[in-house]
Amino acid sequence: MILPDKFRGTLTSGDFIEVATAALTPRHSVIARQISDGGEGLLEAVGGRSRPLVVRGPLGKDVESRYHLLRNGDAVVEMALASGLALIGGATKNDPIAASTYGTGQLIRAAIEDGATHIVVGCGGSATTDGGWGALVALGPKIDLPGLKLTALVDVETPFLDAPADFAPQKGATPLEVRFLERRQLAIAGQLLDRFGRSPLGLPKTGAAGGLAGMLYCAGGDLELGFDYLSELLGLEELILEADLVLTGEGCLDNESFNGKVVGRIIERCTYLSRRIVVVVGMIASDFDRNHLSEGVELVSLAERYGEDRSIIHTKECLRDAIGAVSLD
Predict the structure, then answer these.
(1) 292 vs 7, 48, 64, 284, CA distance in Å?
(2) Which domains are assigned to the chain?
């Protein structure tokens, strides 16, 4: 069973699956699934029918985006495809004060107008720290429709007011801008309380995607770990039970990998279900606490085995060789 996360900047989870499948077949029977913690790659993981839409990007420029309609009636929005940092070329090209979730709101509104009554929003990979205000403006009165259910998929426990300090520097914010965003976030929390009678303050997970999750919560939404939603949707536990070995991996294994992220959650599931697991990663963070790994977890670092430069430049080649060297008997 192949269940990878992405190698950020070098491989998508689909690339990992392609390389691993080629390395393992035809000697072994392989089942592969793309998986997500609610961030990038969510739509590929859930499948369904794609509905393309041009929306306003995080800095105001139109971008081609989409949402998916699933057989179970859910509409799934990947906010990174409308308000994501990758859309503008990374943190150095971002304006963390101006970056807005308006385009994400346009996707949610379109899904509602398409007849969906349960909107699932993946809150990850954002360029924004606007407390979800842009999305709320784009939604307008649509967010008050009777019978509408909202679910925010998150992979962090960060509270609403901590989002600027925890995440804005990764999105290009200076210390002075972080302090401004903190004050603005507090003001937005007050406006959300006035608007919905519900406050995001002090609650875990509400700071995901710069506070978008908090806005969705105030509007009556649920907050759920993205991996758990995908696990149930894909029947992941049953698939793992059918496997003799589970292969997963990501670009960098660090302590945050065990805070609701894909690889950490898969390791936990395999340990609980007594299934052999091999984890192939690009590198291991220098401060990684190996106590996160239960006994029996097999860990392979491409940087340690092939050198950091080669593992980054020739990631596919190194990955193929590393997987081919794993004993599957």
Answers:
(1) 20, 35, 40, 13
(2) 13-31+243-324 (no CATH), 42-227 (3.90.1510.10)
